[in-house]
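To the team - S-adenosylmethionine complex, inputs and output below.
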Amino acid sequence: MGSSLIETVVDEIVKTKDEKGNTLQKVNMNRIKLSEIHEQPWFPKTLRDGLTDELQCVFKFGKVYEPIVPRLAKAIQAAGARGVVDLCSGAGGPWTWLRRSLAQQMNSEQIEICLTDKFPNIAAFEREKEVSGGAITYCRDSVDASKIPPSLDGFRVLFTSFHHFSPDEAAAILQDAVDNRRGIAVFEAARRSPLTILLTSIVFFGGFLVVPLIRPFRASLLFWTYLIPVVPFVLWLDGVISCLRSYPPAELAELVSRVKPQDYVWDIGEVRGLLTPVTYMLGYPAPSPK
Ligand SMILES: C[S@@+](CC[C@H](N)C(=O)[O-])C[C@H]1O[C@@H](n2cnc3c(N)ncnc32)[C@H](O)[C@@H]1O
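Output:
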């Protein structure tokens, strides 16, 4: 099948039996196979960085990820991880405030975060490092979440980015975490629901409101937001596409069923948020029997 930007593809799950012949739950993943504009290599870096900056700011004011703090703290502790490797970080995601909330929840002094992205927004990563007094670091080089270098040690987290990956890639990301005995958490604000798709218009208008708050100041962001509003438009369009590509809990469970060995604890569901629920999936090695 081709992969044009507007092609609808049903990702059929081919594997319906495990190796012992037991029938697995069959889930048809009715994801729309669309590529987001900002993940195209040809999309200009200035626009992509502006888009991730605006998204991060809008999500911060919408307190989108606040409800996931207790679950993430529990999973990081259960995994015995000392730090976090954030994948597909964009402009740094929620870590400025989340790092403090997690430390509080975990009764820990400090938790170290390493930001990574296939297209790193270095100016934003530098800002996060400075604001956190060095508790947040970053990888200057491109890090593809589907090919994580072994040197990156820590609990793996993906915020609103797991939908970028096809079912095979997504299952491989989970398998790699299990093979390396790393904890992994996926949180998605994007959902395949009419309400969440409607709420992407808040992200569009929010994009206009947050620009004066974004640091470091860039005249290009003013231009591409207020004079020619390419950034808020792509932010909105990619938001809609993200929703249509997102994995609901049943499909995340199906992806987990492909991962071997099954000696991991998996916690999958949705938690109510201020505006829209957040879908979550957490996985960490099961405690060994005493
Ligand atoms: C919607 S943004 C999410 C940003 C951030 N996690 C947040 O919540 O604000 C998605 C990010 O995923 C990155 N990305 C896309 N494909 C990737 C891949 N294969 N590996 C690593 N990063 C990727 C993009 O560059 C972009 O910064």
